[in-house]
Amino acid sequence: MTENNQEKIRNFCIIAHIDHGKSTLADRMLEITGTIEKRLMKEQLLDQMDLERERGITIKLAPVRMLWGTRQRSKVESEKPEIRDSSSISESGQDYVLNLIDTPGHVDFQYEVSRSLAAVEGAILLVDASQGVEAQTLSVLYSAIENNLTIIPVLNKIDLPAARPDEVADEIVKILGCKKEEILHASGKTGEGVVEILDAVVDRIPAPKGDSDAPLKALIFDSVFDPYRGVVSFVRIVDGHFEKNKKFFLMQSRSDGEAIEVGYFHPKYFPHTPLLCGEIGYIITGFKSVAEAQVGDTITAKEKPAETPLPGYKIILPSVFASIYCTDGDDYPNLKEAIEKLKLNDASLSYEAERSDALGFGFRCGFLGLLHMDIVRERLEREYNLSLVISSPSVRYRIILNNGEEEEIEKPGDLPEHGLFREVLEPWVSLDIFTPKDYVGACMDVVQKKRAQFNNIEYLDEVRAIIRYEMPLAEVIIDLYDQLKSVSKGYASMNYEMIDYRASDLEKVDILINLDKVDALSFITHKSKTMNEGRRITERLKDLIPRQNFEIKIQAAIGAKVVASERISPFRKDVTVGLYGGDVTRKNKLLDKQKKGKKKMKSIGRVEVPSDVFIKVLRNE
Length: 621
Fold this sequence. Notes:
Elements: E1 9-15, H1 22-32, H2 50-55, E2 62-68, H3 70-77, E3 96-102, H4 110-118, E4 122-128, H5 135-146, E5 150-156, H6 165-176, E6 184-185, H7 194-204, E7 217-226, E8 230-239, E9 247-250, E10 256-258, E11 261-265, E12 269-271, E13 280-284, E14 298-301, E15 320-326, H8 332-345, E16 350-356, E17 360-367, H9 370-384, E18 388-390, E19 397-401, E20 406-409, E21 421-436, H10 440-448, E22 453-459, E23 464-472, H11 473-477, H12 480-487, E24 493-504, E25 506-513, E26 516-517, E27 523-526, H13 530-544, E28 552-558, E29 561-568, H14 584-604, H15 613-616
Parallel strand pairs: 1-3, 1-4, 4-5, 5-6
Antiparallel strand pairs: 2-3, 7-8, 7-14, 8-13, 9-10, 9-14, 11-12, 11-13, 15-17, 15-18, 16-17, 19-20, 19-21, 21-23, 21-24, 22-23, 25-26, 25-27, 25-28, 28-29
């Protein structure tokens, strides 16, 4: 590519709620632009992980480079797209290089989206024509507007019988302030309107700005670990250009290295040198340590370095905390290595080492939400072949000590005894619920049980409403999302943002199994809920823990006071089955011997809690 071709580059991403057809639209774009041969095409092509394909959601952002111009359009019209790699830019200048970053839609992966927004100049706002604008879409849209991105509104799934394009278009006009004729209509499934979207990307989104003669500045917006080639960094070249074998260093971590390979995504790695100003591509750094190439760092040339680094990213603080342990203590080194590698691939994950008396060595991890936690657990188990135990998720609390000092605690076990602190502060969030008006009452009924404070309700049109609440984060993270989906038949969506910390009357409840405290099951809850929650968890544990040859006592306690208790009766072998008569003392002698054996077994026996119990116990099933 020559320097004047910077005007022919368009960098964009797609903003959409889960299941609004984002990955399907990306598939059609790859097909229509001739980036992928039809025989190699499959659904959700950019979703590389098995987990993404199984759940039908995007977890990791995925960049891809496409070509679009008059020749591609004519090939579409003749239904014979030409397959070419995008290094062969035409001399006539008719081809545009389109760099798409496919992004997740769930609120728990918002950090992935924020990184995409910083690497592009425009975004396609994709809205399901049958469901309308969702809460999480709105949240990401505002972030895109803050980043001064050009927004292209698109109504997807217009081929569905339930589609209501005119009504949903009015919603978009009200939120975005655009003209109704600017909204494109498309179907990712049939390919209708996709050509118009590609044309709009070329016409409406500006070319990247940057000085190709300035010292190299490249923003790392993602990284993955390759076991054979080391750390592979996904970069956006902001200034200058980058070549293979070029020596570089990272301005924040101060690491230096030499580029083993550079190239772009087609959508697999396609070696190509150099990467020029405004382009998106990858650099194989060869780094073996995951800490050397942090997301948000700036790469510059060693011989002619830039003076100041790029702004990078606002660090998103985790809102949910849980401890991860191995079922087999010998696997701890493998878990340590796996979490380090996953942290490189998922910058929103935070962790620190800790030790539990019941479960041994592990890590205290911070997540953006329950789905994020569930995905991390499953990725660790699948990709690194580990068997894990995860504690009950909790939020970060603040306590005011008697001397006036403030401390933060991330797990219930860190809460001091009564009398050693004045008050406990818990995080509160502002909650927006988007729902069809038919389900407003049911949704409000669910939220009112969660210590929520009602703010207002706003009707977007005759069909949809936004209900706004303020409520404790601890009440949101467990199963609020599931309950809202259940009562609204899947139509409601929600989004929440942290607002502040507020004083609450909270208690720590310990769970004891045969008088042994299980740290992973301890929880902090409001005083009004301690009895009910203690009873619910002990009853769930009674169902989930397998019976043993000895009695198991399960108790929920606040300090020395037991608030709920359950008992799992032991297996009983009939030791008198071989008796054939004689004095009753023979029978009593055998029963006494069995009783002593069970007592001894209880004193030395240990209850093995299955690893999935810690997640199942939270669900109100």
